[in-house]
């Protein structure tokens, strides 16, 4: 099943905020107003695991202790806290809860004002990385010995920036790509020339930054191939299990043993 974006079933959300020009400092339009930081994550620069909200910090004030107010602009448009329940400015911080990459990606600026003078901050870019999907547990798949097997995971969407890393594990151990095993850029797993030793539990993980989240658990069963061309073993010729008299016809049969 494909996850729906608007049902708040995002499995994880990581956000990265960076100053458009980290070397540039805000210019003062009035000596009494100041910024003590650039609009950024509280732990800028950094990556955080979202818990349903994204907060951009903006700290500033007035040197003559005047009361100041903060406003935020997104892509040049003023954000009004009272016009949307998901946006609020408290002590200069901008909180978006819940965040949505389809709406909240963009450039943000913080404005501080004492109702007489105003000071506009540098611009910061907010990009939301996301993965969404419905987690499935203990999905049973089957394959045939000596034939190929592939598992294409289509129950999720992920952001183009930053792109997640896909990790497959077999019975708890990370799978390494080889001539027989490959993992595509989209996280699909391909195994050629199945053997009975490939039967077991496969788990699928996505990694975004420091976050790892298990997305899938698959039990693979490998059946023996019944095709004679796929039987490996020894062949011997011999008579049927019966007594043979002199000058009688003797019939030989072919016995094949395989594994």
Automatic annotation (TrEMBL):
The alphabetized UniProt keywords are:
Disulfide bond, Glycoprotein, Immunoglobulin domain, Signal
For this protein, the record's PROSITE patterns field holds: IG_LIKE
User: InterPro entries recorded for this chain?
Assistant: Ig-like_dom, Ig-like_dom_sf, Ig-like_fold, Ig_I-set, IgSF_CEA-related
> Gene3D superfamilies recorded for this chain?
Immunoglobulins
The keyword Transferase is annotated on this UniProt entry: no
Q: Does the keyword S-adenosyl-L-methionine apply?
A: no
Question: What Pfam families does this protein map onto?
Answer: I-set
> What is the residue range of the signal peptide feature?
none
* TM spans (from-to): none
So which domain of life are we looking at? Eukaryota
Please give the name of this protein. Sidekick-1, partial
Q: Upper lineage ranks?
A: Eukaryota, Metazoa, Cnidaria, Anthozoa, Octocorallia
